[in-house]
Write a structure and sequence with these properties.
- It contains 5 helices and no strands.
- The chain is an all-alpha fold.
- It is found in: Membrane.
- InterPro entries: DoxX, UCP030066.
- It is a multi-pass membrane protein.
- This is DoxX family protein.
């Protein structure tokens, strides 16, 4: 027999909603920060970004394309409104990250400890988690 009062049920539902919202923003901020840093690094050709793309056979100008799309995608995800654009941005990040993983696998460029495969898969997983946790106001 359920002995919860209606106020206790409302509090439990509200608590679950707040927890989901907190999880969404935590995952989304980690995703946004990570992808934005990656995009800036590619646009500025910092660190190992040049070697990372040329080693697997891509032309160097791809860093400008990827960096720009990453920053625009993250902007679309974090700004309010535009739910359809958010859907496209989430799918773009997923395809970008899984494409990066496959590019490294096909080029046999796994990196130290599989870093070149694990990191983009981690970012893809963050994108999926952010998409799945998003509040109703950010859905189509």
């Amino acid at each position: 027999m359920n002995t919860m009062t209606s106020n206790e049920k409302i509090t439990k539902v509200e608590s679950r909603r707040i927890g989901k919202t907190a999880a969404y923003w935590t995952v989304t901020i980690i995703l946004a920060f990570s992808i934005a840093l990656s995009g800036i690094g590619q646009l500025m050709r910092l660190g190992g970004n040049v070697d990372l793309v040329t080693h697997i056979g891509y032309p160097l100008y791809i860093t400008y394309i990827l960096g720009t799309w990453k920053l625009l995608g993250i902007l679309a995800i974090v700004m309010p409104g535009f739910p359809r654009l958010k859907e496209w941005a989430y799918s773009g990040i997923f395809f970008l990250m899984t494409g990066a993983t496959l590019s490294h696998v096909f080029a046999h460029d796994y990196g130290v400890g599989g870093f070149n495969v694990i990191l983009p898969l981690f970012y893809a997983a963050l994108g999926i988690a952010s998409w799945a946790l998003r509040p109703k106001s950010r859905r189509l």
